[in-house]
Design goal:
The protein is α/β, with parallel strands linked by helices. Helix 1 crosses helix 12 and helix 7 packs parallel to helix 12. The strands form two sheets. The protein has an eight-stranded mixed sheet with strand order 3-4-2-1-5-6-8-7, sandwiched between helices. A seven-stranded mixed sheet has the order 10-11-9-12-15-14-13. It holds the Pfam family Semialdhyde_dhC_1. Its EC number is 1.2.1.38. GO terms for molecular function: N-acetyl-gamma-glutamyl-phosphate reductase activity; NAD binding; NADP+ binding. InterPro entries: AGPR, AGPR_AS, AGPR_dimerisation_dom, AGPR_type-1, NAD(P)-bd_dom_sf, Semialdehyde_DH_NAD-bd.
Length: about 325
């Protein structure tokens, strides 16, 4: 039996923090040893009643030294602009970090254009982007992993196999739809039930801050990525509909199957994908269709899992020398 590895989570109040707790309490090797938020003074089952009788860990007020004293790795499920204040001291203490925020996903200049001034440029030089299909070997040796955004995960996985077939400098169109949980727990007019229920709308078209993340990881200019997200009246799930111009003669389905043939959490579908078949899992389902030189790619993920928490766990497994699939959910919530 493998020796337990103590891990912690800072940021357990939100949806992604809860999803991570649910996976870690049943993980065969990781032992959830420290949980925290910005206030503390509560237990996990009080914070999340769904954990009643399952997890009653005391939720602490986040403290780097206290966490580092008992953990080898920490997950930071904290908001953008907040993670930097934690990563910097954790790195100095030799604690490995999987960061859920955008604070380490982008180059400094682009991050500062879309977010705020970056206060930890030193660790930006050493971070690894946490998409295993792109950077698996680098993740294995990483001390700091930037967990990808949900929209970029679905878009990048859909596009990767075809970048060499794409006509250079032509538009990449990503029309994406996500459930309301992607907006987090903080209430706003946009996510208010009365506004979301029986409704569907785009937000931040062409200017959403996930667009530069997609562009940077695909190695294209920001002007080439035309990204429009939509909010749909669902709790969870995400589908990206992607359109690109291609060149040369090739079978898109054959190409994508070959590209991902050794990837356990990418499934190629013969029929258009849907949200239910990936809900509750780490899978990304992909469907492709050609019309002359126009290629349509549809990719489906669970925005809270493959788009955040289960992908973070896969990264942590790799960082600690474990089986990448350890503790990863693979059965959907299909009724």
């Amino acid at each position: 039996m493998s020796k337990n590895i103590n891990v912690g989570i800072i940021g357990v109040s939100g949806y992604t923090g809860l999803e991570l707790v649910k996976m870690l309490i049943n993980h065969p090797t990781f032992k959830l040893n420290y949980v925290a938020n910005s206030t503390g003074d509560i237990t996990m089952d009080e914070l999340h009643p769904s954990l009643s009788g399952i997890c009653s860990l005391e939720v602490k007020k986040a403290d780097v030294d206290e966490c580092a004293a008992t953990c080898s790795l920490v997950f930071l499920a904290v908001p953008h602009k907040t993670a930097m204040a934690f990563v910097k001291p954790f790195m100095k203490l030799g604690i490995k970090v999987v960061d859920f925020s955008a604070d380490y996903r982008l180059t400094q200049d682009v991050y500062e254009e879309y977010y705020c001034a970056h206060t930890d440029a030193e660790n930006l030089e050493n971070v690894v982007y946490g998409l295993p299909e792109m950077f698996r070997e680098e993740i294995k040796n990483a001390s700091l992993v930037a967990n990808p955004g949900c929209f970029p995960t679905s878009a990048i996985l859909g596009l990767l196999p075809f970048m060499d077939r794409r006509v250079p400098n032509t538009p990449i169109i990503v029309d994406a739809k996500t459930g309301v949980s992607g907006a987090g727990k903080k209430l706003s007019d946009v996510t208010h039930f009365v506004n979301v229920n029986d409704n569907l709308f785009a937000y931040n078209p062409f200017h959403h801050r996930h667009a530069p993340e997609i562009a940077q990881k695909l190695g294209v200019s920001f002007d080439e990525v035309n990204f429009v997200p939509h909010l749909v009246p669902l709790t969870r799930g995400m589908i990206s509909s992607i359109y690109i111009q291609t060149q040369g003669s090739f079978d898109a389905e054959e190409l994508v199957r070959e590209y991902y043939k050794d990837e356990p959490y990418v499934r190629i579908s013969k029929n258009p994908v849907d949200m239910k078949n990936t809900a509750g899992t780490n899978f990304c389902d992909i469907y492709v269709k050609q019309k002359g030189n126009l290629l349509f790619v549809s990719s489906s993920i669970d925005n809270l899992l493959r788009g955040s928490s289960s992908q973070a766990l896969a990264n942590a497994n790799l960082m600690m020398g474990l089986d990448e699939n350890s503790g990863i959910p693979n059965i959907a919530y299909v009724p």
